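Project channel, design review

CF: Before we commit to the Drosophila rubida constructs, I'd like one complete example in the thread so the newer folks can see what an input/output pair looks like. Taking Peptidase C1A papain C-terminal domain-containing protein.
RD: sounds good, go ahead.
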Amino acid sequence: MLKLFLCCALFSGVLAYNHGQDSIDFDNYVEFYKKNYTTAAERNNANYYFNYHTKLIAQQNALADRGSSSFRVAINQFSDIRLITFAARLPQAVYPATSFDSTPVQTETTVADEMDILTEYGINVTAQDQGTLCSASWAFAAAKAIQILNALPSDLQPLNYSAQSLIDCAGMSTACTTQVPQIAFDYLTQETGTTLIPAAEYPARNDSLQGMCVPTMAAAGVKLDTYSRIRDGDDAAVMRYVSSSIPVIVEYNPATFGFMHYSSGVYVPPTRPRANSSQFLVIVGYGRDTASNLDYWLCLNSFGSSWGENGFIKIVRNAQPIAKGAIFPNTIGVATM
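CF: and here is what came back for Peptidase C1A papain C-terminal domain-containing protein:
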C-alpha cells in the first residue's frame, strides 16, 4: 500500500510540475534555443532545472530591484542544466610548460580613469557563441583579441576571424577541454606562414566541435608577430595595457549561478565558487558604474550576444584579482589583403 501511495504521489507531482504556465514557458524555451532532448527523462530533468532556475532568477532580480545587488540575471541557453554540469563543461585550463612570449610593447605612462577600447575607436565587435559542447573560449578570446588589436590603426571595421581554425589546427587533443590562448598565439607566431583566417573563409562548425584542420590560403588573413604575458595578480598591469588600447585575455572561473545567468549590471562573484572551471574573457575596458558605485572590468565573453549585455559582462574590480593566465597579442605583422 505504501509503495502504491508513493507511486501515485510521484505521478501526481509530475503532472502538477508539467502543467500550466510553467509548461508553456518551458516549451517556448525549448523552441527558442532549439533544444533537442533524446529521451523523456532528459526532457523532464531539463524542465525541472529550468523551473528551478526561473525561481532563483526571480529572487536575484528582486534583490537588484531593492538595490541589494548590483547585477541582474536572466534565462539563457544554460538554464536547463545544473550549475555543476555547467561547470563540468568548462574544465579548468592546463598551461604548457614553456612559452614563446616576448617583451611587452611600451605603454602610456598615465593610466586613464576609465577606458572602453571599442567605443574609443568606434570598433564594432560581435560576441561569438562557442556553443554548449566545446569549451573553446581560449580560441574565441584569442581570435577576438587579435581582431580588436588589428583594427586599431585603421578606420575599417574589423573582420570576424575564425576561432574554428584555431580549434582545428592549434587545439590538439584538448581543443574542447583544457586548452589555453597561449597555444593559439604559439601556433600563429611559431608556425611558418600561419595567419588568423577570416571566419567567412573558415566557418564555425555546429557547437564549435573540433574537426580536421583544413589548410586555407586566406585572402585577408592577419599575422601575429609576438605576444606577451602578465603575471598572476598584477591587475595594475592589466589596467595599464587596457588603458593603452591593448585587449587582455584572462582566465576566469565561471562556476557560479550569477555568471551562468548574468544579464546586466556589475557582477560580484561569491567568495567561494562551487567548482574550479575556466572561461577565457577579453578585457576591453574598465570604469565605474554610477548606479551601484562599483568599479568594474568590461569583458567580452563567447556565449553569444543574447547572453549578458550583448555578450559582454561587467565584473567588479578591486574585489578579487582578475589577472590570471593574462596574455595579450603584442605586435601585429603585415596583414594580407
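RD: helpful, thanks. The first helix runs from residue 2 to 17.
CF: Residues 1-18 have pLDDT under 50 and may be disordered.
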